[in-house]
Each structure stands twice: as structure tokens, then as C-alpha cells.
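Reproducibility note. Readers wishing to regenerate the assembly model reported in the main text can use the exact inputs given here. Chain order matters: entities are listed in the order in which they were concatenated for prediction.
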Amino acid sequence: MSFQIKEQPAVFDVCIIGSGAGGGMAAYQLSKAGAKVALLEAGGYFDPADPKYITQLKWPWESPRRGASTTRPFGDFDAAWGGWEIEGEPYTRKNGTQFDWFRSRMLGGRTNHWGRISLRFGPDDFRRKSIDGLGEDWPITYDDVKPYYDRVDKLVGVFGSVENIHNEPDGLFLPPPKPRLHELFIKNAAQKVNVPVIPSRLSILTKAINNERGQCFYCSQCSRGCQAYADFSASSVLVIPALKTGNVTLFTNAMAREVLTDPSTGQATGVSYVDKEKLTEHTVKAKIVILAASAGESARLLLNSKSAYHQNGLANSSGVVGKYLHDSTGASRSAFMPSLMDRKRYNEDGVGGAHVYSPWWLDNKKLDFPRGYHIEYWGGMGMPSYGFGWGIEGMNGKYPTSDGRKKEAGGYGASLKEDYRRFYGAYVGMSGRGEAVASPDNYCEIDPNVVDKYGIPVLRFNYKWSDYEIKQAKHMQDTFEEILTAMGGILSGNKPGPESNYGLAAPGRIIHEVGTSRMGNDPKSSALNKFSQAHDAKNVFVVDGGSFVSQADKNPTWTILALSMRASDYIIDQVKQKNL
Amino acid sequence: MKRRDSLKALTISSLGVVGLNPQETLAEQRALETALADDPIKIPGGRLKEEAIRDAKLMKEKFFTPQELATITVLADIIIPADSKSGSATQAGVPAFIEFMMKDQPQWQTPFRGGLRWLDVESRKRFNKPFTAVTKAQQIELVDDIAYPEKAKPEMSQGVAFFNIMRNFTATGFYTSQIGIKDIGYMGNTPNQWEGVPADVLKQYGVSY
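Running the prediction on these inputs yields the following C-alpha cells for the assembly.
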């Protein structure tokens, strides 16, 4: 191992750490404005259109494990390189609590496999404390962010429908796809129990928006990345176009170690990183440093960037860095639909995700928990993968054939083959995704005793759901049961009860973690100002989910993109005014 | 590669994780490098290098004995035989898939090895021969005692548990094969234009847009 530190000769205008939604957007905006950008990515190069990386349109038999999740948490064909566990890059937990941390090590980060659910935060989502007294209000309002949401819609593309719902602001939408058959059933059933169902809002191009990206061809595999660039991945939509400006120098396999600061002014001077392939140490000098490594990794970097000037870690004189970590709540239920047995076959792949969803529809003042959730749906005639047909012995004895024959559970032979055919495509399911209340008691910090294989101190998590989230999950289960029963479904398994927190997923499992370097007007209670700029060092910005004050029941990506674009505009303006 | 692995091994041992011997990790790594030395790894599209190396290593290993694999083959075709619509489990490559899964997810090794042994012991008790050596009728007689969980005799419960696992693996292997996908009638995974549910289907279920 060489301990000689190699310096890049040039001083870049900006060094961005991380190439996901936040870093990709900043790289795009700043490089288009002419800035010389160094972009650090801890993983390898990835282009969803390069055959080297393509898993889209592959068949299950092209994987020896038929797509099982042995090596990739979402199966062999999922685009994410990484997962909840990465060899040599541990994290720890304390006080017997659980937080599971998903990391993608690749150009574009987790945007390569995400669900493309692109929801704007609503006016209420920026001022939850004013509404229910819990947590904190954002220092900005929906009106501050709206112009950026509009620009993101136009730049990236999103389909949806105009609904005029107060806290579910409409965007500049492409046409949504028509619902699938089970989604029509869901819509009708949900109406009976007063749950609204509207077209999904996904960043998938149902119409072409420029010459660089194609139109969706309805293979339902956005999680594999799209070779036509017809969905939003930071790799294809932001970073690759940014590289084409000639203003971006991309460093892949560059694991940031520390943000370097000037001992007298406390301002950032660059970033040190380890080359993961060669194990060599490097520094990149830059006038501005933008952290976009994910809420967890950016907090880790800030906390690891200690100096005499920043004794508590960079941007952390308030002590809030790492605190207020919160992930979406999540719970699910599924059902068998006898009415869909022996259904006619046709291609119903559609887009990658549900064509409909349920935005939050109730008033928390009348409920025993704060904050809402939305519902995502699934089902239908999907491509068989590992696990297909599992547990038929629990099904084929219960439901007679179309001509009324009752069968013995289990079995084998030609009769069993008929059973797999009659049950295919006759399942539906739903998942709630809700807002947790941000709390200083849920946090990540530097583990004093553990380093990763590069010698970088690792994060230690402390996270516990409160009664707010548990009661919300209970409400989800009641709603799922109502909808599934109203559509004639036979619910799978037992209803999750208090023994499992009503099926509430462990924190981190929904992969929406935010809040670790929250923004605010008061430098004593926030790490960043309302432009995602560190209170303690004006040339340091955080443009990932770290800046979130509260996370809403909306998936965070669209707001990360809008806030990163807004921070980029502010940087360009401040440079022009010679404040940076 | 090697250096990083030794670093990993040092990290593990310094953290005092029980049960992971760094020497063993290094030995495994050396064995892997030797085994692969004259056989440069081809990385299939969509796979990472580490994944390709792991898959190639698993492919070279054998888990089932020839006798075990012969029993798997007979069982797979009892569970999914050829019929008027499609081929059989072995035609779809199910035994090779099950063999791979034993190495890919080793938690299945004991249920399978033990289940196959249970089956042979039961066959010897009844017919004085292992399962593959008895007549087709005798095989079916035995299978009938373990294939129906709700009516099987309590003393057959371990056989039932094994047959359930065997049925699950056979079905997954078959319906994720080219033959099986055609059989089940999945029509996607191809460029398409989604125009909504076909009109006749909407009518059949009494729904509309």
C-alpha cells in the first residue's frame, strides 16, 4: 500500500461527493453553467445502455439462481450494486436497536433501481410543526420549491394526472398509463371503503421529451435500469449528459475519506479519498465542496472531517449532524383473488410499478397518530422468477377448479401443472409508505471502535420506532384488510398484530432515510441554511436527503432533485456576486 | 485482490468476530485463485466481476452424489411430467438448477440430503431397494404417502416436509425455464405498447375505463 498522497494539480470550482439524485443534479446544473466539476463516486461506472451492464429484458433462466436474491438483495437482475451489507464496509448499531442501511456503489447510486415514484411534497409537508406541534417546520415553503419542482418535471419527465388535491400538488405531467385489470379492481374496491385511488406519478417517459432519451416500451423493469433512458436514473439522465459538457472530471471507485478545511478560516479546501481499486490515497482541491453521498454517508463524512476549527466535525457546531435520521414507515399485505383464477393471458407488463396509487386521504386530527401514508399496489401476470409456485400445497386443496372439482392439497403430476396455471396472476398486494416523526433520539454517529477496510471510521446507528409509527402501521393493516376484503380477496397469512408492530418494517428497510444534516434558520438547531449551505462553512453544501427537516409520506427523490437544483442556482448566484 | 482480502481478514480478526478464521479465508482465496488461474473469467452482461467469479466457482463444485441426483431426477419428473401442453421438469433443466441452488444457498443442503436419505430408507424398509431401483408403481405408492400434506399419516411428516420442498424447487425451476414460461403463458418481457386491458377481458369482468 502506498501512503504517498497524490494531489490533482488543478483546483476545481466544485467537488461533488456522490453521483445519485442530489449529486447528479448538482453536477448537471453546475457543469452546464460552466463550472469545472470533480465528481467523486464510491462505486464503478454504470450506463444502463451499455450491454456490459444491461439486465433489462433478460429471462430468468439467464441467471443460474433464476433471479434469487442470494447476491443482490432484490435479485440477480436488479440494478443496484450493493445492498444492506457490503463486504468490508460495516456499520454498527447500539442499545439493541435496529437500522438497516442500504448503499449502492455505482454511478447514479440508488436511482438506478428505485421505484420512480416522483411525488412532490405538499404545502403542509413543509410546516408539520405548525400543524401538529411535533418536530420542526422547514425554513422554506412549498412556494419556494414549486418553481424547482416544475423545472425538474420538465427536465426529467414524470407522468400523472391533475387532481387538485391540496397537499398532493400536481406537476407538469406526461400522460399516465391506463390501470391494469387488478388495479381496476383495487380502484373499485377502494372507492367502496372511501380510499381514493388516482394514477401514479412516476418518472417514466410515456412520451419522448427530447432526442437523448427514448419512450417507455412497457417492460415493467425500471428496477433493472433502462437501456432506452426512458426512466429517471441519475446516471443516464444527469451524470452522463453532464460528462458530455466536458466540464466534469469523474472519479469512480473514489471513496471519500474527509472534507479538508483551512485551519484558519474553516472553509473547505477539497476532499481526500481512497482509490478502492489501487488503494492509493488522493486529494482533490476545490473551491466549493458539495456532499451528496446519501444522508448516512454525508453525515459520516461531516463527522469524520474533524479539525481544530471544526472540533465537533464539519458543519456540526450545533451537534445536530447525524440526528433526526428518519426513514419512511412501511407495512404490507397481500391476498389471493379467486375471481382472477384461470384468467386470459395477455402482456400486462406496463410501466415499472403500479399504474395507480392512493395518496393520503384522512385528517390526523381525527386519528390516534400524526402524519399520513400513501398506498402502493402490486399484482398481476408478472414474469416468473425464483420463488414462483412456492407453497402451492396451501392453495390447491382450498379452491375447486373452474368445473367444480375439489382437489387434495399438494399432489404432483399433470394435475399439479394445471394448478400452477389456474392460480397464475391471481394475487394482489399493497404496501403503505408513511411519514415518521423526526426525533433527535434516532441518529447515526461515528463508532469510536470500528473502521471499514479503508480505515474510515464507520457509522453506528440508534433508531427506534415510536408509538406514532406503530399506530400508523396498525391503521395501514386495517385499511389493507378493508380494501382487499372489498375486492373479494382472501387475505394471505395472519393479520400482523402488536407482536410484530403490525408488520412495520425495520428502520432503513424502505430506503428513504433522510434528515441527518437538517436545514433551518437557527444555526444552533440546524446544520444547513435554507439553501442547503452549511452554517459553519459557506463553501460546503449538502444536497442529498440529509437536508430534510421532515420527510412527508412522499418518496424523497423528487424533493432531493428540486432542492439540489435550488442549491445549484444559489451557488451560481453567489459565485457571480463573489460571495463564494 | 489478494491484498485487500488479507486486509479484510485482519479487520475481521481484530474485531474479534468468532468463527471466522482469517487463515481459512486466505486459504479459500488462494484455492479460488489457483482454480481460476488458467481459466479467465468471462463476465456475462449485467454481472459484476465478483459475482461472475462466485458463480464460476459454484458451477465447478459438485454437491449431490450421482445417486442423489438420479433420485432428484426421478422425483422432479413425477412432480412435473410432460403433458399435452409442455415438457417435463428434467427437459427444463430442473435437476441442474436444484444442484446449483444447494451451493448458492447452502441452508438447503441438509433438508435435501437428509430428505433423499429418508426416502431411500423408507424405500428399503418397504421394498428392500433404494428409491431409484424400485418399480414405477412402487415409487408412486411411496410418493402418494408423502405428497398430500393434509391426508398423510403422522409418521410420514418428515417425508411430507421434504416432498413440499422438492415440489417447490421443481415448480420454481420449471416455470422459470423457457419451457415453463411458455407453459404458464407469460407474454411480456418484450417491447410493447400498453393500451390498457383488452376489451374482451374488461367485458368478462364487468369493469371499464
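We highlight two features of this model. The CA atoms of residues 413 and 419 of chain A lie 10 Å apart. Chain A touches chain B through 77 residues (CB under 8 Å).
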